[in-house]
Amino acid sequence: MPRPVPTLSRGRWLLMNSNKCWVKKSDTNFDVTMGSLDGAETSELIGLYLLSKIKKIIPQQYLGLYRDDGLAVINKTNGQRLDKIRKQLHSLFQKEGLKITVDLCQHSVDFLDVVLNLTDKSYRPYRKPNDTPLYINAESNHPPIILKNLPSMIESRLISISSNKTCLNEAKSDYEKALRDSGYNHTIDYKTPQPKKRKRSRKRNILWYNPPFSANVSTNIGRKFFALIDKHFPKNLPLHKIINKNTVKISYCCMPSFGRILKGHNKSVLEKQSEKNKAPEKECNCRDASKCPLKGQCLAKCIVYQATVKTASDKESTYIGLTENSFKTRWYNHRQSFKNPKHRLSTELSKLIWDLKEKSIEYSIDWKIITKSKKYKAGAGHCSLCLDEKLYILKNSGAINKRSEIISKCRHSRKFLVKHI
After folding, report:
1. Of 198, 257, 295, 319, which has the fewest CB atoms closer than 10 Å, so is most exposed?
2. Does 359 reside within a domain?
3. Does any domain span residue 18?
4. Helix boundaries (H) for 285-406
5. Got the DSSP string for 16-40?
């Protein structure tokens, strides 16, 4: 019988703080609490680092990690060897400023929501003591597709973590009771999991429309939305290839909770107060104000701007762009792309300027601010700056921007990824 060993269970990797309360103002340690932004990514990063260290202690092992829950099993190892591994793990975690509790010779262990038993090689659902399941009420204001599929999703999950029908029957009573209390009449039955047929996958650039769902609205939003697509993007328009019923899909989202609405309101009030207390920022730093590209507003941030290229034959071409930093920094980059052949393909505007240069056509560029927007914040569901740029590209059908820019992903969220820390 293989003997399982170090069980790294939830909540057992704890920060050591020398018997003092952690104070953010005086302590320089980097700390990301559970539930905070990027908390899951940070815990995975730390967990992977620790697993790479544990590999040196446990060479032939099975190791598993999900977020902050880890599990290790060693085959054919005696008690003396296990005790030595336990001491090495304590020493490793102590060097990293952490501490760990190691349980040895466990024949059964709970990992996430599953109980793993090596004695009879079975697994069954697991819940923490005094943890009563609670589900969305059948009469709540949620999209019908969610309310309809909720019982079947719970049943599928319980079947997938039950090794046989007996294990499921022993655990399903609490879940059935929770479903009845929430207004669902569903009986959980064991079904032998069938292998899924591999469907042919075809990758498409899908543009999702997620209107909020409310049971008080009787209008069929989906039908009206697709009718507008057929009306405003017929087959004879160039944009029909990008916006049609095959590339645009609709999926309802839930309305924000009352607590979320209050939090957003309080946040906007506090931001307005902080803006009033701020000292006015300088709008232009040009030596000659008459030569400012934006007429005294070259230091503006978080804007959508328009560049109008005029030639001697009175032909005009417009380009729409955005910048999160000051416009002057972006303007310098544009000027560099006009002069350096290496950057001639960096933007559609630089391509146009180089074409005019090659044809020896004189031109002039007028810059103006279309709108000011808010920059992306970590954890936000959308980027107002990118959405505003796409909106004005759609409004200006004669813009030289690429049509693919309308369905491009926000690039401002990338800097908040853990890999860039």
Report:
1. 198
2. yes
3. yes
4. 327-339, 348-358, 384-395
5. --TTS---TTT-------TTSTTHH
Structural domains in the chain (count): 2
Q: Which residue has the tokens 């479903």?
A: 179
Task: Evaluate whether residue 28 is within a structural domain.
Answer: yes
> Do β-strands 108-111 and 114-117 pair in parallel, antiparallel, or remain unpaired?
antiparallel
Distances (CA, A) of 175 to 130, 144, 180: 14, 21, 9
Of 43, 73, 106, the last residue of a domain is 106
Answer positive or negative: Cα dihedral of 350, 351, 352, 354.
positive
Ramachandran quadrant class, 353 (left: phi over 0; alpha: psi -120 to 50; beta: rest): alpha
pTM passes above 0.85: no
Q: What CATH number has the domain bearing residue 379?
A: 3.40.1440
Residue whose tokens read 């999900």: 66
Choose among 290, 286, 321: nearest CA to 305: 321
Distance, CA of 32 to CA of 43 (rounded, Å): 9
Q: Which residues contact 7 (CB under 8 A, 6 or more apart)?
A: 71, 72, 102, 103, 106, 109
Q: Which of 106, 134, 165 is at the close of a domain?
A: 106
Q: Per residue of the chain (421 residues), give pLDDT as tens.
A: 333 333 333 333 333 333 444 444 444 555 555 566 667 777 788 888 888 888 888 765 677 778 777 787 777 777 788 888 888 888 888 888 887 877 777 788 888 889 988 888 889 999 888 888 889 899 888 888 889 999 999 999 999 999 888 888 888 889 999 999 999 998 888 887 777 777 777 777 888 888 888 888 889 999 999 999 999 999 998 888 888 988 899 988 887 778 878 888 888 888 888 877 777 788 898 888 888 999 889 999 999 999 999 998 888 999 999 999 999 999 999 999 999 999 999 999 999 999 999 999 999 999 999 999 988 887 777 889 999 999 999 888 889 998 788 888 888 888 887 666 6
- Residue 209: its H or E element: strand 207-209
Distance CA 70, CA 98 (A): 15
Map tokens 């349980």 to a residue: 103
How far is the C-alpha of 314 from the C-alpha of 293, rounded, in Å?
A: 20
User: Using an 8 Å Cβ cutoff, are 344 and 356 in contact?
Assistant: no
**CATH number of the domain bearing residue 96:** 3.30.70
The token pair at 58 is: 């446990």
Query: Per residue, what are the HEC states of 50-89?
Result: HHHHHHHHCCCCEEEEECCEEEEECCCCCHHHHHHHHHHH
Provide the residue range defining the domain that includes 346: 291-420
